[in-house]
Write a structure and sequence with these properties.
Blueprint lengths: L1 H47 L7 E2 L3 E4 L3 E5 L8 E7 L5 E7 L5 E4 L2 E4 L4 E8 L10 E8 L8 H10 L6 E10 L5 H67 L1
Length: 251
Amino acid sequence: SKEDIESDGKKSLEAISNEEQTALLKKINLTEPTSKAEEHEKDSKMKAFKKPLSVFKGPLLHISPAEELYFGNTESGEKKTLIVLTNVTKNIVAFKVRTTAPEKYRVKPSNSSCDPGASVDIVVSPHGGLTVSAQDRFLIMAAEMEQSSGTGPAELTQFWKEVPRNKVMEHRLRCHIVETSKPTTLTLKDNAFNISDKTSADIYLQLNRLLESNRKLEDQVQRCIWFQQLMLSLTVILLAFVASFFYLLYS
């Protein structure tokens, strides 16, 4: 009948819709862990760079850290550091980052722009095999751009050629190498080695003193033997002289 056909059609539609809903839920459940894993990976990457705490508040940019870039040493492995620029103006601010040792460092981005109220993270990392020096310096240059100006590489290059010197904000940063403390086990081993080295040195010194004293005693013994031999020879000569004297006297 017509009613049976309509009821069968409704049931089939409901079954299809239920199957689609189940498939959609499965897709959502499958994509959620992936998206969570991606977010976790991004968070871990961002946490790899510790946000600097000190801030230099300039007229165009707030720069963090304020004075020093902290680099880990070779043993720690954490050699990258972060510069955070925050635009505090109502216009776009162009910036450049220069260093006294460009062959040592990779700076990304080194020549770009920052939108009003936005922040830019600049990653500074030494090239492989090169060591960070406390004498190295970084210079951050910033200048406010007009709203109609473009921010492409060509526009930025032309902007820096034309911008007046008195419109440029400059701020310098020093480099600081963070020394990592040795583990306690290594410290104890080093102390043990130092103690053993000191003990060996003391024993060697005492041995040298004993050898020197022994040599002096041998010299004294040799002198005593020589003196005894001399006295014995003189005694023999004297006895021979006395004997010859009495022999001549009574003959």
